[in-house]
Amino acid sequence: MRPLKDAQLGAFTFFASALPHDVCGSNGLPLTPNSIKILGRFQILKTVTHPRLCQYVDISRGKHERLIVVAEHFESSLSDFQKQGIKASSEKVLQVAYELLEGLDFMNKHGMVHRALSAHNVLMDCKGNVKLAKFGLYHMTDHGADVDFPIGYPSYLAPEVIAQGSFHPSDSSHDEAPLPSGPKTDVWSLGVLLFELCAGRRLLQNIEISERLKFILTLGCMDDIVTVLAEEHGCLDAIKELPENVLELLRKCLTFLPSKRPTPAELLGDPIFNGVSCLYTPFKKPVSLFSSSLRCAHLELPEDISDLCKDDDEDYLSERAINEVYHLWCLAGGDLEKELTNKGIIQSKPPICTLANFVLEDGESFGQRRDRSFLLDDTTVTLSLCQLGNRLRDVAGEAYYPLLEDEQSSLPQSNSSNELSTTVKLPLIIRERDTEYQLIRIILFDRLLKAYPYKKNLVWKEARVDIPPLVRGLVWAALLGIEGDIQAKYESTDKDTPIPTDRQIEVDIPRCHQYDELLSSPQGHIKFRRVLKAWVVSHPDLVYWQGLDSLCAPFLYLNFNNEALAYACMSAFIPKYLYNFFLKDNSHVIQEYLTVFSQMIAFHDPELSNHLNEIGFIPDLYAIPWFLTMFTHVFPLHKIFHLWDTLLLGNSSFPFCIGVAILQQLRDRLLANGFNECILLFSDLPEIDIERCVRESINLFCWTPKSATYRQHAQPPKAAGDNGFGKAASYYTSDYQDMPKTDLSRDPLALCDLKAEVSPRISAEDLIDLCELSLSGPGKRTRAGKPKIVAVDIRNLEDFNRGHISGSINIPFSTAFGPNSELVQCPATGVLQSYRGRVIVIISHAITNAIMFAAHLVKVNFPRVCFLDGGINKLKPTGLLTVPSPMI
Amino acid sequence: MPSCATMKKNKGKASSTNEKEFVFEFRAGQHNCVLKVPLQFPVQEIINDLHGRLMLLHKIPCYIETDLKSSLSSFVEKETILDYDREAELALQRLTAGDVDINQLTNAWTRSYVETTLEHARPEEPSWDEDFADVYHELIHSPASDTLLNLEHNYFVSISELISERDMELKKLQERQASEMDKVMHELGNTLSDHDVNAVASQHFDAQQVLENKWASEQKQVTGIQKHEYQQWVISLHQDLQKSNSSQITEEIKVQPSQLLEVADPGARMFEEQPQLEESFTIHLGAQLKTMHNLRLVRADVLDFCKHRQHSSAGAKLRRLQTALSLYSSSLCGLVLLVDNRVNSYSGIKREFATVAKECTDFHFPFLEAQLDEVQQVLLYARAQRSSKQKEQPEIPRNGGDDKNKNVERNPSNILPGEFYISRHSNLSEVHAVFHLCVDDNVRSGNITARDPAIMGLRNILKVCCTHDVTTVTVPLLLVHDMSEEMTIPWCLKRAELVFKCVKGFMMEMASWDGGISRTVQFLVPKSISEEMFYQLSNMLPQIFRVSSTLTLTSKH
């Protein structure tokens, strides 16, 4: 979005019309409230950016179908001319006309019509350039069908608009809404507007509305409408004095028959403007982040670089994008309803005074007095930025332009940096509401994203701290490594031709995260359908499984105006975390996944695992929707965002840890209950503290040896060298599958064998890495954050003495457990007890012994038990086995 | 090689769509190719997608891509403008041809503007009620609130004294009459005949009526005076405060002690014999996003929520203050009262309610009788509206419509099961709005379903709660106010389950009406049910609603 510059933020409000009581949609579901329809349609307006149009910023729903729209705003408008009674010079008229037409033409190219053109909706910025306001009202209200009030102002209505009739909800004789108006209706309004400018007075003032409209309609019989209007308003002289090109312009605009009236585009190219058009350069849309063309292609640096840093007034905030400023305004305590109430625009009556007297069985109420506060007052109120300014007073100028080169200091140095470094330690919820912190973070990410993919590493690094909600959509795309011309790819995917999956998609969408305003709007449904179909069509080897809709929801929500990006993110996410989950026959993938999951439960929480196995509450019963939708089916969107902020940083085994963390949060209730209660509990998952869940799953993840979550059906290693800008592969982010495969890696295992094992296996590599054994000696730097480990050799003493890995303890299998599978008290088991809490790696000769030994340990609630894949034999070729010096 | 594809679209209104053919010619090597695509207007699709699909479908070489795109979009643009022009001129022609009446047309426009926009709306006539509401709301949220409450209470006390005086006199009269009657009965058969006894009885009745009427009119007069005085006083206090611009209130109004009342009848009006049982729950509704609500199961008399109590009793003044504070706020309290099909206050619970409502002067809203009169008027208007609408569209079938229509035709001033009227009160202890829901004897039977009018009425009540910010509503759980013999334990359990489940459904629906505002729903059970029954019901509630887990404060070991 454009920088705020000298603009203000303005807000206006209106009511969507109420739905008829008790009517169902054709699918049997309740009708969507009109305010939600408007909210959905509004979104696209945020992307309509043009220098002649007031940028739309946000829309919010209030109580009782109230909508509040926030947009760029300016205090002065064309009606100032009228108030002062000044006739505008003909140059000014031509300039205003040309700029207005530029705006209208741009809107028309986006399929929009203004319809509400009037003097007070044509704003002027400080340089006197035209800015069209409320240009989206006609579009967002579905041509006025979703609101009670007519769109447009009586004096400015084009004759055909009047003739097509007004649609009034209480009027039952009109069943159908009038037909939508075309771009030419705005040209008529423009004509009236320009006439007023030339005449220096308002047209058809002080006449009753119906007389006004009749007058406009009778103009059809006149030959020269401009003269008639001038005579009627006693300004014939003023009009006669106008230069010929202005008169010509007026005549062209005020052409009665639409077919003879030019469109804005035609007028713009008219020779009338020959003297004006050369002053304007056509508007070019800035290149988006993901496109085939170079973003810097048209960058021209001035000769003298210092021209760029001319400090005018040092108001750095106004250099930020409008939506950023608005976001910060909200964080700094801005309240739209309060602002509008203070200005008297929102006037509400106490509800007790407006109660109906009598309500019929079908819900129709009677005796409710007409509430004046529901009438339209579309005055725009300027939102004061004072409070925000005060809040950000202490932010130094440098903070607005952080240097990215220095990778050491992530936070810019300012006198408040101390404060910021303490903020980082606060809970995420608080950080997200901290104005100053968010400002710094947004600026930082904004710059990093502008340098994407070059600064990909830094994006990863900063995302580990947190992701500001305002830029989450793009940051996620960066984390998922989206690159290239996604728009072209998306457009070339056929999203319209019917496919067999359509029916299922149609059923699922109205049931997917519908509490959310965006996703429940008709626009949301259309976009949902298109993105899902695009995915299904472009992945012929995979199929649509229920749950894909939930998976799509967060991406669509974050990139509502960019379906292509939503599609690209989803397409990148699925192979990374849900490889082959959407195969037509996905049972082997899911079964393996769930088995590894239950091994993870046993690994991290043996007590819970024992209990759940005892009552037969296996992951198959509850965890499939968790993993198939990556938890999007079970959590509301705001929780998914926080969960995925971390998930996207981890590798494909991170979901296991989230699963275990959820179970642990419900641990007490699970342990106390039997099968039926557990099923009931999970049928509607209780509230989960998501921040705690994230924290604990990170902790669990750190304790899990990488190879423990090995799956043979995981995504095969990617071809080397595709990491263009090579993100530093850290221990946590790289997948086990991505590592080069060696002899010491884990071997695939048949599913039935895997299922028989309570504890996970780990690879010899992992053991070597974690025990810090290596041939090059112990000089390797110790990495912090690695799990503490103890190796337990369960071969008999003889074998042990012949060679073992250093640091391992020997507990011969035959001696460790008593008849009731309790741990026998002996010095060796005592040592084992003292290592309780560490990762215990069991090393054996025969793998069955290791499996049984591990199972026994889990039975007696030993956490973090795993065993070496392939047993001691795997280690023999490495030469790492040592023989203790004989005791003397 | 001409290629042609049909893409039928069923979108849009059939009447206003038409098909046009897009023709595009291009050269591929030696061949001249023609692409013909029939398109439905108005075009619903995004042009870029359409273009992408055409490229894919007809395997169009990529060097044509930009040409095709620009020619396609200019074709669509041009044709759309033509369509607009055609429709617009059709409308203008209809007008000149006289198919549409110009006066009707412009009047419809005028009405639209006048009824929906502030700019063109008729100026508002000043409303005394709303001005008073503003003044009161301001005062009650100022230090003057205590004074206001004390004043209200003093008025209440004087009404109470009046009532107890009335009761005393009535009691005396009844005693005198009883002794007279005794005498008469004694003489029955001797000097006096049955006829004489009847005469005396009717004479007694008349005397009682006269006395009651006298007191009623007296009470009405007093309350009228009180209301007038009170409103004047509030307005002048407000003016004084504005003038002096200080929050100091010079004249304090002390609570007028009233020994009379406390001695007069401590049991009958003020206390309940059985202790009120109450249990509260916090629930979460919704699949992914959960909204929190409070539920309460209460065993009490329905009028306990209305009865005014002495300030001396614990918490009564606080409760009164709470109700007064929220009167003009957006968190109102409502109560569902089950009534029969007549809009009056002559019998049963309606009469009892009216008595309670009169115990204290309503300083804000019209008296109950006046409100009921208004409801009657509105009811007749609604019936007239309905019947005229039904005549217009007779084909719409309505479930059980015949039966209902007959009832309505018989007596249009009666209301039907499932319908309700609303009265507003400022003088009840914990309630601002009362929903008088009409039920018939059907609710006493054991087999009502979720489609029962009474249940639908509950749904509509909850809907009104949403639209008018009633955040606390009290619902009779068993849909009866008094227990009778046929209401066995299984009957109670079945009924409670039905109402719980339906209310749960409605509350989930409410989330889409109001965006999930936290509410309190109180389920009321009659006083006469046993304690065991109460606990059985309170066990049932958490099984039906999802009760949120208790917060564990113990740290992890």
Automatic annotation (TrEMBL), chain A:
GO annotation, cellular component aspect: early endosome; midbody; spindle
Short name of one Pfam family: Pkinase
InterPro entries recorded: Kinase-like_dom_sf (IPR011009), Prot_kinase_dom (IPR000719), Rab-GAP-TBC_dom (IPR000195), Rab-GAP_TBC_sf (IPR035969), Rhodanese-like_dom (IPR001763), Rhodanese-like_dom_sf (IPR036873)
Classification via Gene3D superfamilies: putative rabgap domain of human tbc1 domain family member 14 like domains, Rhodanese-like domain, Transferase(Phosphotransferase) domain 1, Ypt/Rab-GAP domain of gyp1p, domain 3
Listed GO MF terms: ATP binding; GTPase activator activity; protein kinase activity
Keyword set, alphabetical order: Cytoplasm, Cytoskeleton, Endosome, GTPase activation
Name under which the protein is recorded: TBC domain-containing protein kinase-like protein
UniProtKB/TrEMBL annotation, chain B:
Signal sequence region: none
Region annotated Disordered, chain positions: 389-409
Superkingdom of source: Eukaryota
One annotated GO biological process: regulation of mast cell degranulation
GO CC terms in record: cytoplasm
Descriptive protein name: CL004 protein
